[in-house]
Amino acid sequence: MKITISKENYLKAIAEAESEGETVIAATLVRWLKVSAPAVTMALKRLKRDNLIRVGREGQITLTAEGREIANRLLNRHHLIERMLTEIFDMEWYKVHDEAEQLEHAVSSDFERKLVEKLGIDGACPHGNVVGMDTPGDRRRRGWKPLDEIAPEETVEVVSVFERDRQLLEYLDGLGIRPGASVAMLARNYDETLTLRIGAKKIPLGRAAAQKVWVE
Fold this sequence. Notes:
- By secondary structure, the protein is of the alpha+beta class.
- It is 45% helix and 17% strand.
- It folds into two domains: 1-126, Arc Repressor Mutant, subunit A; 139-215, Ferrous iron transport protein A (FeoA) (SH3 type barrels).
- The chain is built from nine helices and eight strands.
- The chain is globular and about 55 Å long.
């Protein structure tokens, strides 16, 4: 069985969506991969034929053991590449996800081992995310919560940011919202925005964006 880049992308997207707490169906993959519904339908047929996924009676898609092994391998390489780009090459944290999306398919097992030797296996990526499954429930059990849930006058530290939206990352970086930043809630506004304080600055942030930022 040939594992193509397309198959790898689908398997990784399923694992990533599961990690975000989503129930994965065909429409989920249309949204995550920005491809057409017919393209997803054809891809799912191939993945099911190759015993890489299961499709439930209501359309729920899950990975088989073999499919998850492939997805996990790709997720691990993606994570290592992001760390390499920031820790070794000092690339801006909001750029590395897109670069890793391209490079993860080309990394050999030998190079992956070298990255593990250089970087170790326990570090978070530049966006504060750990490798593998890390659901919203897992994050809450560690005491984390989305930024939009903090109380007025509460001060928190940013620990993780949703990394699969380059425009969002650049926007947050411009505001000073990045892992390690200290943020205080000043007000919840009637127009669904929040007024935050970062250092000496007061900044507005929409709740939709704040929900993609985890703090403790």
